[in-house]
Amino acid sequence: MAVRLCDVASLLRSGSWAAEPWTGVIAAMETQLSNGPTCNNTSNGPSTISNNCSSPVESGSIEDSKTNLIVNYLPQNMTQEELKSLFGSIGEIESCKLVRDKITGNVKTWIRQSLGYGFVNYVDPKDAEKAINTLNGLRLQTKTIKVSYARPSSASIRDANLYVSGLPKTMTQKELEQLFSQYGRIITSRILVDQVTGVSRGVGFIRFDRRIEAEEAIKGLNCQKPPGATEPITVKFANNPSQKTSQALLSQLYQSPNRRYPGPLAQQAQRFRLDNLLNMAYGVKSRFSPMAIDGVTSLAGINIPGHAGTGWCIFVYNLAPDADESILWQMFGPFGAVTNVKVIRDFNTSKCKGFGFVTMTNYDEAAVAIASLNGYRLGDRVLQVSFKTNKTHKA
DNA sequence: TCCCATT
């Protein structure tokens, strides 16, 4: 008997997953958490921050410290509306802002490129905590987002990012942090690696909590040899991406392919995601079975409704009469490549007839979207989301 | 040799 993947969606529809729309994604994330970008500082709550300069000006007040979150490593094409949609699934949002490139100059002003991070301020501190617990580490397209409390905004924490080069190729991220931690509190660290071989490129970043800490680190470590190293390292302030022009960002975008060649870890993560879906649905470990060797393509021969040749067609039911295409983009876009959305409307009234379709390019992204969005509460309606079936009978 | 963490 052939495994019918369309049944995954209906199986996932029942049970506890439906009650918590996003837990599907989280469950799929479990094995990925250690693979993402530097997420070892996700517990940087306000309690560890010295709040000496008591100036709750700008946009951050003391009360905000338990409701205001910073979200890092967002996909480049994610909009503020999508950010709000995703985090709004946790609880009521007081404000939400995607930080964008503000440089305009000669270039077209309508291009305001996302800088890949944003802020979400909840009404209820409990929702902020819940968002950290459930959305931190969520994989969106090629990114693994980081969700943590925002530090109170202040000039002293800006421009605290260092660029370090000449590192021994054998130096680990942990060793890098150990070297710099004597100068202050490290917010993030990263060593760049060759995309193909995974070998260190000998360059990295250290972001301190405060700029003065970064300045001290430059004084103490620039042109110095780390313990055991034969060559001195260079430590300087990193280029500030917000000062890059839109033009530069554009050319950078143009040069880097939209979908990077997945390294071993990414491939493994993808396999785990597929594995989790199959495991939850059937209690099988697909990665130990031949059909999971390369995920989707090795599933050939299995009857998979929803596959439309150009992508995977998803059926979305229980949309409101005034629903439009944009809501479908907003809901499904964060999960991966969406090539088409359509709201089915009444010919005479132009009102939505209660359902629509979404086409996604990649199977596993579609599967995670379905597992996550099925049962999603949109307004006063609970959506039903599944792969489109070939059946034509009326519901 | 430059990663996208402060509105």
UniProtKB/TrEMBL annotation:
Residues in the signal sequence: none
Pfam families reported for this sequence: RRM_1
This protein's UniProt keywords: Repeat, RNA-binding
Domain of life: Eukaryota
Keyword Membrane: no
SUPFAM superfamilies: RNA-binding domain, RBD (SSF54928)
GO cellular component: ribonucleoprotein complex
Single Gene Ontology MF annotation: RNA binding
Boundaries of every RRM domain copy: 67-152, 160-240, 312-390
Region (Disordered), start-end ranges: 35-61
Biased composition (Polar residues): 35-58
InterPro entries: ELAD_HU_SF (IPR006548), Hud_Sxl_RNA (IPR002343), Nucleotide-bd_a/b_plait_sf (IPR012677), RBD_domain_sf (IPR035979), RRM_dom (IPR000504)
UniProt keyword annotation of Lipoprotein present: no
Family to which the UniProt record says this protein belongs: Belongs to the RRM elav family.
Protein name: ELAV-like protein
Species the sequence originates in: Merluccius polli (Benguela hake)
Top-level taxonomy: Eukaryota, Metazoa, Chordata, Craniata, Vertebrata
